[in-house]
Amino acid sequence: xxxxxxxxxxxxxxxxxxxxxxxxxxxxxxxxxxxxxxxxxxxxxxxxxxxxxxxxxxxxxxxxxxxxxxxxxxxxxxxxxxxxxxxxxxxxxxxxxxxxxxxxxxxxxxxxxxxxxxxxxxxxxxxxxxxxxxxxxxxxxxxxxxx
Length: 147
Hints:
6 helices
């Protein structure tokens, strides 16, 4: 039996609009793309043209956003993370490898690259979306069905 999830089109559209606004504001204010892997790398290994304070503020905003949501709405943020630490470590390494090998992360290619009509981002986004679809299908309909 497939795993059921909530369908939240209004909340999803609002979240997408906020991500889009944040990406546009970052581009307007700093000329940088809102790719999390690039922002994190500028924070960890700042270069000569880097602005680590801006990178730090962006990362703090990512962490603070759910806390602000909880304070304003009174609703908790549901996030499911596996308790299987080896699985999480392998998944993290694969995501990191993919971000380096693909020349950016899902947010950089999917949000900013597509909006700039970057051919490289179209290819990268098609690959990671297809991979995500296969992984979700397998985990929910094949692996999940056996549990």
